[in-house]
Amino acid sequence: MIDEKQLCVSAIRVVSAEAIQKANSGHPGIVLGAAPMAFELFSRQLVHDSACPDWANRDRFILSAGHGSMLLYSLLHLFGYGLSMDDLKQFRQFGSLTPGHPEYGHTVGVEATTGPLGQGVSMAVGMAMAEDHLAATFNKEGYAVVDHYTYALCGDGCMMEGISSEAASLAGTLKLNKLIVLYDRNRISIEGDTATSFSEDVPARYRAYGWNVIVVADGEDMDAVGKAIAEAKACKSAPSLIVVDTKIGAKSPLEGSEKTHGEPLGAANIQAMKESLSYYPDKEFYIPEEAYAYVNKCMEKGKQAHADWDAMMEGYKAAYPELYNLYETYHAKDVASLIDVDAVAAKLTATATRSSSGQVLNAIAPMVPQLFGGSADLAPSNKTELSGEGFYSKENPTGRNIHFGVREHAMAAIANGMALHGGVLPYVATFLVFSDYLRHSVRLSALMNQRVLYVLTHDSIGVGEDGPTHQPIEHVASFRVMPNVAVFRPADGKETAAAYLYGVKANGPTLLALSRQNLPLYEGSSIEEAQKGAYVLYGGEKDADAIIIATGSEVDLAVKAAKAMEEKGKAVRVVSMPCMDVFEKQSAEYKESVLPAAITARVSVEAGTTFGWERYVGDKGIALGIDHFGASAPGDVLFKTFGFTVENVVAAVEKVLNA
Amino acid sequence: MIDEKQLCVSAIRVVSAEAIQKANSGHPGIVLGAAPMAFELFSRQLVHDSACPDWANRDRFILSAGHGSMLLYSLLHLFGYGLSMDDLKQFRQFGSLTPGHPEYGHTVGVEATTGPLGQGVSMAVGMAMAEDHLAATFNKEGYAVVDHYTYALCGDGCMMEGISSEAASLAGTLKLNKLIVLYDRNRISIEGDTATSFSEDVPARYRAYGWNVIVVADGEDMDAVGKAIAEAKACKSAPSLIVVDTKIGAKSPLEGSEKTHGEPLGAANIQAMKESLSYYPDKEFYIPEEAYAYVNKCMEKGKQAHADWDAMMEGYKAAYPELYNLYETYHAKDVASLIDVDAVAAKLTATATRSSSGQVLNAIAPMVPQLFGGSADLAPSNKTELSGEGFYSKENPTGRNIHFGVREHAMAAIANGMALHGGVLPYVATFLVFSDYLRHSVRLSALMNQRVLYVLTHDSIGVGEDGPTHQPIEHVASFRVMPNVAVFRPADGKETAAAYLYGVKANGPTLLALSRQNLPLYEGSSIEEAQKGAYVLYGGEKDADAIIIATGSEVDLAVKAAKAMEEKGKAVRVVSMPCMDVFEKQSAEYKESVLPAAITARVSVEAGTTFGWERYVGDKGIALGIDHFGASAPGDVLFKTFGFTVENVVAAVEKVLNA
Lengths: 659, 659
What we know:
The structure is a homodimer.
Chain A: H1 4-23, H2 28-45, E1 60-63, H3 69-78, H4 85-89, H5 119-138, E2 150-154, H6 156-160, H7 162-174, E3 179-185, E4 188-189, E5 192-193, H8 202-208, E6 212-216, H9 222-234, E7 240-245, H10 267-276, H11 289-319, H12 321-330, H13 341-345, H14 353-364, E8 371-375, H15 379-382, E9 401-403, H16 408-421, E10 425-431, H17 435-447, E11 453-457, H18 475-480, E12 486-488, H19 493-503, E13 510-514, H20 527-530, E14 535-538, E15 546-550, H21 555-567, E16 572-576, H22 580-584, H23 588-594, E17 602-605, H24 614-617, E18 622-624, H25 635-641, H26 646-658
Parallel strand pairs in A: 1-2, 2-3, 3-7, 6-7, 8-9, 8-10, 10-11, 11-13, 12-13, 15-16, 15-17, 17-18
Antiparallel strand pairs in A: 4-5, 14-16
Helix pairs in contact in A: 1-2, 1-3, 1-10, 1-11, 2-3, 2-9, 5-7, 5-16, 7-16, 11-12, 14-19, 16-17, 21-26
């Protein structure tokens, strides 16, 4: 009798190795080592329905060790997610459905883009938090509307990354028992035996975080993996780490060698593996019908679960119509339509834009109930607390504020996981200067087109006394260069509201760079216009002699300088440019209307690096900014010391006019 | 009888609180809570000599919780590091010696710039590694040339950051027994009780890393702290974590409250504290003579140790003259003079610049024996291994290669610690795309003017099959905006050598963005000229009709396009611009000679974001680049698909010529 499970595992191993060989590029080591546990998971544990990969209540699976992409693609092929054998043969080729690392939104069944280590397992924490929060919000006796597990598969590399430590510590505090992490412990990394750099006791570390830790001694033993997952599910008070001891490159002649990590095995080694596995040594890219048949049988359970859930939801709709409608609201794609902009505008005052952000967040919180987020231990400074909404915890899972702790990087990855999960709209916060800590997760938000709101306060030397370690100079520019990121630096409350309104519609992350210090609320500012990225805030009624382009707190200097120039008989237009990235997307006509090519006397003012401002001020213009680190002193002293004064802006305008 | 130690601790508490109050800004909480342990350390444990704060063999102390700066300043005042009471009164004012967070190079006695949490304790790991490596290299029986401890003081925030987890795990693997971390566990962070976000068992976690963990139940008990430090020193096989339970804002009426974290206590609370401590309630900024006298007594031990070391070094010089000279070489400020540039040039071939980097590193390794570094588990790809130099470990402490593990952020902070320690020249490596993970530590290298070489390979879509998660688009630009960072993207081996030669002279970090794919070795390239940031690589002999400015791998396209234009009768100059940052520092005359203002027909070519290129191509020019994420496919396919072809460069040049 055929052992169908082993047959499937051999099929995954062989076909994956062949695809990597054909591409002449890829990572066979983890594919071979983790194939049994991954197959056990997909075939007998994961509740999923490949006919409906978007089913909201499916179990989630993230391949945190994204370099093992061929393992995932082979599974998606076997389990009917729409990848053909031809797709597998196109591994790592331009335009194929099987890119080098799993890409969310590109390949059906991929739950998250992974590859940068530690990100996937941290996103899994976010998914588990979203599940837990939504379950508490919606489930009723007999109606388990939101009730699924989140699985991640990671390797030694993910375990070494600090981001996963941060995420695991928070997951332990939050007792996320629906989170199950499979750790493929093969003890080999690119530079060889992990003993040389990673001698720690990982199970003990995770126990210290409050996790339930189970060790499976032999990664080839699928029943043992299944039993461990059952134990993990039985634990109701903690997330589970299942440590599975495996051999990298298992079953190949190179088993145990770091050589299998990132290079094809070579045709001869694949042939030898096929022979030793007795897996069709004379065929290529071949999977027998028995394997497909077995998988189809395994898939019945998930299909049934999905059908049961659909039926249950009909009952839920009847029994709890209001909650059902709320559930629909939580999952609405069009969040903007939930927001009463006039009601938001009515809350705005002249204050620091970080406080404006707090006003906006609190104004929209009742309108957008899926808003769920918090700060990396800076809520009082970031002004991110949703009043009266409580803090999320095991004891209070419906709380909408999150204490992330001092863990910027995990916070951002968790937000990505929440956004990917759906049903919640995440926002996260820290000081702008510490955006460096979470930068790579912003990149993944952008790459995955995920709607995450990053609230980044204390946005310039206006930080003041905390000094250069806390004063962003280059951060706004550093995110302007990142594709698919909208960086807003609003000038006042209305522009702050605009940034949120843009953000809830965006197919990507929106960053808000917000002032510590108080700012005016301008007569000429506009929630509507600011969503275009740049607009004429002052002096638009007549032909201008010169243009001052400013962002954020420096719009005040620009307006005052324009008024001073009027007294000297010159018409100066002030363009507020809260978001370069969005302005770039506007039509040529709109751009010309804001920045007419004929007006070449231009000055930009921004309390940050001048890098990139040439695009708008042109060859004849002057960019005022700060291209060195700040200093410790009261913010107003620094603004004066470093030249951010009306006089200097006026002098620059006169200079460009006289050039 | 006066308890002099308690008197000193009270003095630190009161004067610090007063200075924070006067500044109306600062963080009294940790100052009050950690004052006893810090005073115990400075007075009875730390071997230091304030008369010679640069003494190479001093114990190092890093205040990782940098917001507690007033604690450090009060100690530096008491211990004679040159801070006067007037300096303390100028806390957080412009130009004062007492800025908001400790700044290395600004205030004598500050060993590292801290404030961004987790960085300090990770730098301490780097200092301990440098000490260990140098001790193994230089110490002889009877001559403990390098023999000191490294201490760090951190709070709950540092413990939550992933960077400290990474660093601690590596420190455990390396058994850095001369590293002693004091953990001020007050269980209060900005958002309140750490139980809400940080319920883990930190001692158990550190034991899992292989650390020796000691708990001191009462942070007021200086003898207990002293005893714990003695135990830590007695442990020869592991770094030590001393967990000291304290109360935030101790001895003030606000003891135990998060309100003491980041705001002045208020005059009334300070007065109440002075009264309850019986510490001169009617005086301000006052420290009695008894306190200074006691501290002076404590300082004798350090002075004597320094004198003994000086005498010992005289003996060492006589007994081991070659080693003594080598020690001097290791500590040479002028590293460049150690390098035989011709010998380096002789090693260069036409290859990928990551391989050129390997050639340069291996060529200079014998000339620059203080070179000490490695990769975050990508050495075979980064080409960073120094052949025949072995890997650093407890068993092989003279090994010059380091296995950092998959820990980019800690790696960079460790490099900062090594550079600060002195005696070693650190280099670290990862893929350029993962520079995001270590970005904030680069910022600290820059802020502290520390010479760290960052080897960042796989620098564009040339990465190929690994896909967009591994393809940097924005990273080179993202570092160009950071002050005091030199980002080199060399076109060939000679320019790679130039980057190293610049880097070993720089007062700041140098980043090398290096190709995965093979590149030519140009006739017109120059080790000397490339150190100016930009120069004419081709077509400089006659007046040019147009200029193509290119970096890295795209210089090849530029040269080929220039030659194609010659056939069309146009003279085109190719400017290779390996480093914008360095070019900006050149004289106006030199800049004009490379990029004459009269030639406005300009095209830039770089396989990265176009952001910022307007500075060089001007209003009439064209910037060729890629402003979106990449894709998974062979690198040459991507270059063609995304428009990096000779034809496209030629077309752009023709367009600007015809404009």
